[in-house]
Amino acid sequence: MRRSCLLAVAVLSVFAPSLSPAQDGYFSDWFARVDKTKEEQPHWITPIATTTPRLEEEFRYDQLWQNNRQGITTNNYDGGKGLELIPCEKVEVIFNVPPYLAHNDPVVHDGFGDTAFLVKYRLLSANEKHGGYILTAFLGWTLPTGNQKNGALHATITPTIAYGKGFRDFDLQGTFGATFPVADTNLLGRTYSWNNAFQYRLFRKLWPEVEMNSTFFQVARTPASIRTSRPRAWCSGGSRSGAGLALWWEADIRLPPLTFTLPTTTRFSRCGSRSDRPNGAAKSAFAEPLSLTRVSAASRVRSRVPSCLLNPVSS
User: Fold this and answer.
1) Which pick of 13, 113, 123, 173 has the fewest CB atoms within 10 Å?
2) pTM to 2 decimals?
3) Is 71 a member of any domain?
C-alpha cells in the first residue's frame, strides 16, 4: 500500500507540470470561450416556459405558488432550476437543483422533488447578421430522488430537438421532445411535448411574447390524450432582462378543475457580455444586469398526467 502511494505521488509529480498550463488555459479562457459561443447565435431573450435553443450561462431560481379550488396553496421552491454552464464551444450543461414542495396540506407530505440534468449541443447557428437561426439537440434525464411521493417512480430520459428563426425584430423559438421512463412504461406512459414561443422586440428593450404548448401522452394501451394550452402573453424589458406579466390557461379533455399559479423567475449571469448586444449595439444600452426577475400569473387546468411529468427537464 505504501509503495502504491509513493508511485502515485511520483507519477503526479512528473505529469503535474505539463497538465497545469492546460488547466490554467482552459479556465482563464472560460469567459472568452463563452462570449465567442454566444456571439455565434441569435441574441433573443429566453422564453418564460419554452426551453430556448440558445446556449446560456447563468444561475436560475424559480418560485411558484399554486392555489387549487379548495384554497390550498402549494409552494414550489426553486422550480427545478439551477446552474447553466458552457464548458466548451457548442455545448451547454444544466444542473437542476431538486425543488422543495410545501403543500400546506396535512394530508400531503412536504418534500424534495427529483433531480434533473440537461445537455445541449448546438448543431447549427447564425447571429442576426448571417440569417438569425439556430438548431440544437437536447438530452435530459431525471433521477427519482424525490421523497414523500413528491417525485416520479423511475428515472426518465428526454431527447429533444430545439429550433429558432428570426425575421428582423420577430423570432420563433420551439422544441419537440419525448419523455421515456426507464421502467414501468405501461404504467407511466410516454410523453411527447411540442412548445413554441413567438416574440417581437419593441423599442430595443421590450419583448412581448406569446407561447403555445401542447403535450401528447399515452398510458398503457389507452388512446393517446392531448393536453394543450392557450396562448401565454408575456412582456419583458431589457435586452436580456427585465420584468413583466404573463397570463395563460390550459385545457385538458380529461379533467376540468381550475387552479391558479403565480411563478417568479430570477437569473444571475455575468455582466457586460458582448454577445448580449444584438446587431452590435452599444454596451451602455444592452448591458446585462446582475439579476433577472420575472413575474407571471396563470389560470390553468390540472390534468391526470403520469407521475413522470411532475418533474420535466427544462432550462
Assistant:
1) 13
2) 0.70
3) yes
